Amino acid sequence: MANGSRHATAVVAGALALLGALTSCGTGSGTAGPSPRPSASAGRTAGDSPHSAVPSDAAGSTNDRSPASRCRTAELSAAVGRMDPGAGQRNFPVVLTNVSSRTCTLYGYPGAAFVDAAGEQLGRDPERTPGDPATVTLRPGASAWAGLRYSSPGVSGARTATPAALLVTPPDEREPLKVPWKAGAVPVSGNASSVFLTVLQPGTGP
Computed from CA positions of residues 132, 135, 139, 145, in that sequence, does the dihedral angle turn out positive or negative? Predict the structure, then answer.
């Protein structure tokens, strides 16, 4: 009986010793804690990251390189430049200037119409001179121009009227810009009464 008691005591003592040894191995020199989680970017490939695939020289330039949208009427001012006479013709640059704080584009021909003080149109719509339209990018403060041309009424003998203003409509827009007309009579009917417009191009005139 005594031998059985001593055997049981030895088994219990051995188990306690083993438990103590396991506990000391788990603690070591610090407190055991959960494994640290990887950061949000750890393991992310170049294809997963929205920035890693962008070349360094293009960083921060996305807005500058994206296509600009067309210029709206409210973002432009209009003016008529000085007349350039020649060979029985009267030529004027019709200038559109970007007065907004963003870059925008113009393409093609502007609309134009002479009107009297009551806002009634004088003569027919201008005809488009054949040309090759190209997109004109206007940074804030930059301008584009189209040529307005008609035969001198004194030479052509066309019936004339003196407009109060020239309405200029940017391409693809509906609202015009009103420019006071200071250049006297224009042809409105009869022989050689046509008015012509060229495509828009960068600058303020020839």
Answer: positive
E strands along 54-180, which residues? 76-80, 84-86, 89-98, 104-106, 111-115, 121-122, 127-128, 136-138, 143-151, 159-161, 165-169, 177-180
Percent of the chain at pLDDT exceeding 70: 67
Q: How far apart are CA 172 and CA 72, in angstroms?
A: 9
Residues 84, 90, 94, CA angle at the centre, nearest 5°?
70
pLDDT for res 140: 98
User: Which residues are CB-neighbours of 81 under 8 A, at least 6 positions away?
Assistant: 92, 93, 94, 95, 145, 204, 205
- What mean pLDDT do residues 177-190 have? 94
Q: Which residues pair with 122 in a beta bridge?
A: 114
Lowest mean pLDDT among 17-21, 29-33, 158-162: 29-33
- What is the distance of C-alpha 76 from the center of its chain? 14
Q: Map residue 79 onto helix, strand or coil.
A: strand
What is the C-alpha radius of gyration for the chain, rounded to an integer number of angstroms? 41
Which residues are paired to 179 by β-bridges? 166
Say which residues have a Cβ less than 8 Å from residue 45's Cβ, sequence separation at least 6. none
CA distance 95 to 138: 12
3-state class (DSSP) for residue 140: coil
Predicted TM-score of the model (pTM): 0.67
Q: What is the largest CA-CA distance in the chain?
A: 145
Whose structure tokens read 């007349």? 83
Whether residue 2 has pLDDT greater than 80? no
Task: Kindly state the tokens that stand for 33.
Answer: 């804690």
